[in-house]
Design a protein that fits this description.
This protein has helices spanning 3-34, 44-66, 77-97, 109-141. It is mainly α. The protein has one domain (3-141). Helix 2 packs across helix 3 (77-97), helix 2 crosses helix 4 and helix 3 runs antiparallel to helix 4 (109-141). It is elongated and about 50 Å long.
Length: 145
């Protein structure tokens, strides 16, 4: 039972890291691809940070359930990418499934959202795994004084 507070803390930490990285990416996607003429009044930083956080928490939850005995750095990269893509797909489909797609938005916007969130989540999962592997190697190689 003592592992749950640590796991929740890890999920929140990964979520915050992904949110910080996703926010500027959403600004770039929003201003260059979705709304190049700046006609939409959107807060692109928030539009990137929220799904980044939620994708990370879902990714960590799915990873913890599916890969019970393994740490993030011990899971094979393709599996990590798959779990990340699954989390991104869930988060990307949420606005479309909940009906928050506005009729004023272009019809291709849903596909852009789902595709970009899925791709970002898979890439973020792989990067998180590489960081975890690197940290573990440094921990093992550190001499004891």
């Amino acid at each position: 039972m003592k592992q749950w507070p640590r796991r929740i803390g890890t999920a929140v930490g990964i979520g915050l890291a992904w949110a910080v990285v996703w926010a500027p990416i959403a600004v770039v996607i929003g201003t260059l691809i979705v709304d190049p003429d700046n006609s939409m009044d959107e807060m692109w930083v928030v539009i990137g940070a929220y799904p980044g956080f939620l994708s990370a928490v879902i990714f960590f939850t799915v990873l913890t359930i599916a890969e019970r005995a393994r740490r993030l750095g011990e899971v094979a990269i393709p599996r990590v990418a798959g779990w990340g893509a699954l989390a991104g797909l869930i988060v990307g489909v949420l606005p479309v499934a909940l009906g928050t797609q506005s009729p004023e938005n272009p019809p291709w916007l849903g596909a852009v959202v789902i595709g970009s969130v899925t791709l970002l989540s898979a890439v973020s999962a792989v990067v998180s795994s590489v960081v975890a592997r690197t940290a573990r190697k440094r921990e093992v190689q550190r001499p004891a004084f």
